[in-house]
Amino acid sequence: MEGSFSFEKVESKTDDLKSVSASLRSMADEREKEIEPEKLKVKNAMEKGNEKQIRIHVKNMVRMRHEVVNYRQISNRLDSVVDYFDKEPEKSKASIELEPSQKTALPEEDKEVKKADEASRTMADEREKEIEPEKLKVMNAMEKGNAKQIRVHAS
């Protein structure tokens, strides 16, 4: 049966999505740990007065933070997809038993998935808003040659 629907296939796919989500979370954690050495490199470059190295390491830090945010955002979205599909078989079984007039109440679950997705986007946007001003402050301080301000904003 080519077009048949199998709950086992859905469970298999949701398990795959769960493992991908977990690996993305662990990649984000690993990447977050890599930011600390970059901070030290920025500090050392500031002590030496090497602006080129400061720029390089600050850009690396910002890139790493963006990667962490992206990994976490994708992981959250995968989790909401998994939650949706975990509820979907129950929803399908229940909709078979419901009368047609009762089926209109089921889109509530879709709203929950959309809310979770929106929440993950909002968290990522807030993190993005936190990172950008810091990056600008560091770049402005670098242009002015103010090493003390760079130290404050880089940490």
Q: Describe the largest sheet.
A: none
Mean pLDDT: 77
Give the total of beta strands: 0
Proportion in helices? over 70%
Low-pLDDT segments: none
The fraction of residues in strands falls at: under 5%
Give me the Rg, rounded: 23 Å
| H/E element sequence | HHHH
Number of helices: 4
Find the structural class using helix and strand composition: mainly alpha
Terminal Cα span: 60 Å
Description:
With 155 residues, this protein is an all-alpha fold. It has a domain at 7-93. It has 4 helices and no strands. Helix 1 packs antiparallel against helix 2 (51-97). The protein is elongated, with a radius of gyration of 23 Å. The N and C termini lie far apart (60 Å). The mean pLDDT is 77.
What's the quick description here?
With 155 residues, this protein is an all-alpha fold.
